[in-house]
Amino acid sequence: MKQFTALCDVGREEQVQNIARNFSIVFLLLFAGVWGWIIREVIIFNPMNAGDVAPLPDAVITVAGFLASSVGAATAAILGIELQKISTGAGGGDGARSIAAQVRNAATSDRMIAAGVYVYGLVGLAVLITWISLDTVSPEIVKTFALGALGWIAGTFSATFKAG
């Protein structure tokens, strides 16, 4: 009976992990979709007067800011945790490997981690390019996220170098 109960617990754990993974996918798609829509709105905006910026509904601005903060913080935290596991040997890593190899391994150790890192990085780059290309019509939220994503990208870049 104990074996059956343990088997059921494993099945439940897998179900919970699958549900969490599915919601994570939906969350990433929502993040990419909202920011893709914002990029589109900035690109198609035709200002009537100097100084006009692409209008965005307040709800979209709030949701976009929340999504950018959530995905950015989550991917940075998870990536940092994975790097820590590798560097301490908890993840079966080799302490002699370069930091760059450790970052690459951490970023690709799980498909959801990799998806989160790549989606955030690519959306951040797209927003950054949009802001640089169309800075005069970009709303403040675009500028803010572009700079936040640039900081996040710089953080991943700097993680590839070993200090001292």
Describe the 3D structure.
The chain is mainly alpha-helical and 164 residues long. 77% of the residues lie in helices and 0% in strands. It contains five helices and no strands. The mean pLDDT is 82.
What is the secondary structure topology, with strand pairs?
Blueprint: H1 2-44, H2 58-88, H3 99-108, H4 111-133, H5 140-158
Helix pairs in contact: 1-2, 1-4, 2-3, 2-4, 2-5, 4-5
Please work out how many helical segments DSSP would assign.
5
Structural class call reads: mainly alpha
The major β-sheet equals: none
What percentage of amino acids are in beta strands? under 5%
Shape: globular
Number of strands: 0
Distance between the termini: 56 Å
Rg over alpha carbons: 20 Å
Q: What sequence of helices (H) and strands (E) makes up the elements?
A: HHHHH
What would you say about this model in short?
The chain is an all-alpha fold and 164 residues long.
Note the main attributes of this structure.
single chain, 164 residues, mainly alpha
